[in-house]
Design goal:
alpha/beta; Rossmann fold; 8-stranded mixed sheet
C-alpha cells in the first residue's frame, strides 16, 4: 500500500487505504505506525469495508505539528478532522494504545460522527486506578518523558522498542525482527522521535475534559488475555458507557492484533457485521 495524503484540521496527514464500503478509521499507538493495521485492513477490505489507517500527528510521513500539541483532546480532534476530510461520518473508529485514547476522545467530542467505537488494549482511561503494580509495568512512561528519551529510543538499534513489545505482550514468543522495523526506521527521520514522545510529555494525572464524561455511542473493547491490563479492568469501565458496551477477549497481549492477527480480525469483522445487522433492524 502506498501513502496517500489529506489536509485535516490544519495538518497534513499520511494514510494507508484498502477496500471499499463503509468507512473504518484505524488509529495506531506507540511504538508503532499505521502499518500495524496491515493484516486488519486486508481482512476488512475482504469483508466489504473501506479501511483507512492514518499516521498520527508527528509520525512520519504525517507532519510534525508546529504547536507541539499532543494532548488527548487534540488527538481526538485530529480524528474528527480526518473523518470530515475523508468524506464525513458517521464512521466506525478503531484505536489501539494511544490510538484508543484518541478515539475515546473523538467519540466523546463528536458522537454524531461515530456509529461504532472499537478500542484495543486500553480500557476507558478514566476507569484506570493507579496501583503499585500498574506503576511498575508502566514505568516506561517515566523513561519516555525524560530529557534524553529520544536518544534512548534510538540507541542500540532501538532496543527499547523491542523491550516494550516483549514487556507488553509477554506471551509472544520470537517476535519477528521486522515487526518493529518500520517504527525504528521512522524515528530516524529528523524530529520524529521527539514528536512521538510528545504524547507522553502531554500526559497528566487528571483525565482530559473529553474523558471526564460518559461515552454515548456503541462501544466494543478488545482485551488481550495475556496483556498486563487484565480483562476485568474493562468490565470495571462499563459504567463509562451509556449505549451498548461489549468486551471481547482474544489471545495475546497488548499487541494482540499483531500477535494473533487471524483471531483478532475474525472477531473484529464479526463485531462490525453484527453491529451493521442490528442497525438495519
Amino acid at each position: 500500500m502506498t501513502h496517500k495524503f489529506v489536509d485535516a484540521g490544519g495538518l497534513r496527514f499520511a494514510y494507508l487505504e484498502e477496500g471499499t464500503g463503509p468507512l473504518v478509521v484505524l488509529v495506531h499507538g506507540f511504538p508503532d505506525t499505521a502499518h500495524t493495521w496491515d493484516a486488519t485492513m486486508t481482512a476488512l477490505a475482504a469483508a466489504g469495508y473501506r479501511a483507512i489507517a492514518p499516521f498520527t500527528r508527528g509520525y512520519h510521513p504525517t507532519a510534525i505539528p508546529a504547536d507541539g500539541a499532543y494532548d488527548t483532546d487534540t488527538l481526538g480532534k485530529d480524528v474528527i478532522a480526518l473523518i470530515d476530510a475523508l468524506g464525513g461520518g458517521p464512521v466506525i473508529l478503531v484505536g489501539h494504545d494511544w490510538g484508543a485514547s484518541a478515539v475515546y476522545a473523538a467519540a466523546a467530542l463528536a458522537p454524531d460522527k461515530v456509529k461504532l467505537l472499537v478500542t484495543v488494549a486500553i480500557p476507558h482511561p478514566a476507569s484506570i486506578t493507579p496501583t503499585p503494580r500498574l506503576a511498575w509495568i508502566m514505568r516506561h512512561f517515566v523513561t519516555l518523558r525524560g530529557r534524553n528519551a529520544a536518544a534512548k529510543l534510538r540507541e542500540r538499534d532501538g532496543a527499547l522498542v523491542d523491550e516494550l513489545y516483549r514487556r507488553w505482550s509477554p506471551a509472544w514468543q520470537d517476535i519477528p525482527a521486522d515487526e518493529t522495523a518500520k517504527f525504528k526506521t521512522m524515528i530516524a527521520e529528523p524530529g520524529v522521535a521527539e514528536a512521538t514522545l510528545g504524547y507522553y510529555r502531554a500526559l497528566t494525572l487528571r483525565p482530559p475534559p473529553s474523558l471526564r464524561g460518559q461515552i454515548t455511542v456503541p462501544t466494543v473493547s478488545f482485551a488481550g488475555e495475556h496483556d498486563n491490563i487484565a480483562p476485568r479492568a474493562y468490565e470495571k469501565a462499563r459504567k463509562r458507557f451509556t449505549a451498548s458496551y461489549e468486551v471481547v477477549q482474544v489471545p495475546g497481549g497488548h499487541f494482540m492484533h499483531r500477535e494473533h492477527p487471524t483471531e483478532f480480525t475474525t472477531e473484529l469483522v464479526r463485531v462490525l457485521d453484527d453491529h451493521a445487522a442490528r442497525s438495519r433492524g
